């Protein structure tokens, strides 16, 4: 069964094959559940002209935000981008293309892409700029817009546990976009906190089956808190 072992020993092998111009789908929500080391490896490689699909673009000095310093991102498809001053400046300067997408629609775009569904209808966004140029169809008297699904050359996700076959378990709110993102990449790389042997994960606790995952790497996570809130 050695051929089923998807664990790689270093970040270079984890992202082998990524190239300029690729579409990268990244799991995470804010700074919660982000594949920190994989993002850092993309920065180290200086891979550029990327289209990044993620809920948001991190902050100035952490998460996907670090890819903005050297202008590695050409386009981002996201639902929220309000925490990043560098991102704002590049947008105002016309240095980055932004496609804002309603949050639930973005999640469904990833899920549908992973399921082989090319497009779907949703009522979300009808009558707003989101719907401009998109097909509209009525169902039961209510208008819906046609949204295309999303796939990418790479998907990078963060999980709590994985076995060597690539089965993944996410923990609490770090689940967020990660399960959908994991299905939508031609090559999916999971950065995890713990790797266990096959059989140690109960089938009922597996969130993403290993069939979707190509590579697994054990990461060291800072787990930075985006907004620290304390109470006396």
TrEMBL record:
Q: Which keywords fit this entry according to its UniProt record?
A: Transferase
- Spell out the InterPro entries in the cross-references: 3-oxoacid_CoA-transf_A, CoA_trans_fam_I, CoA_transf_BS, NagB/RpiA_transferase-like
- Transmembrane region positions? none
Q: Name one GO molecular function term.
A: succinyl-CoA:3-oxo-acid CoA-transferase activity
The UniProt record lists the keyword Transferase: yes
What's this protein's name? Succinyl-CoA:3-ketoacid-CoA transferase
Organism, as annotated: Pseudoalteromonas piratica
């Amino acid at each position: 069964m050695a051929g089923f072992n998807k664990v790689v020993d270093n970040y270079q092998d984890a992202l082998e094959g990524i190239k300029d111009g690729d579409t990268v789908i990244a799991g995470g929500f804010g700074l919660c559940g982000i594949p920190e080391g994989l993002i850092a490896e993309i920065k180290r490689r200086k891979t550029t002209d990327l289209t990044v699909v993620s809920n948001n673009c991190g902050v100035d000095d952490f998460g996907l935000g670090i890819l903005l310093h050297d202008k590695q991102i050409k386009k981002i498809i996201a639902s929220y981008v309000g925490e990043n001053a560098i991102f704002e400046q590049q947008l105002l300067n016309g240095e980055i293309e932004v496609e804002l997408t309603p949050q639930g629609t973005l999640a469904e775009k990833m899920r549908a892409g992973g399921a082989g569904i090319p497009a779907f209808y949703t009522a979300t966004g009808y009558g707003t700029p989101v719907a401009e140029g998109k097909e509209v169809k009525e169902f039961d008297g209510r208008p819906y817009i046609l949204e295309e699904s999303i796939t990418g050359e790479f998907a990078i996700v963060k999980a709590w546990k994985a076995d060597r076959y690539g089965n993944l378990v996410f923990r609490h709110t770090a689940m967020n976009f990660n399960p959908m993102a994991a299905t939508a990449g031609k090559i999916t790389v999971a950065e995890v906190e713990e790797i266990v042997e096959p059989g140690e994960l109960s089938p009922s606790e597996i969130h993403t089956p290993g069939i979707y995952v190509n590579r697994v790497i054990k990461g060291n996570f800072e787990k930075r808190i985006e907004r620290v809130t304390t109470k006396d």
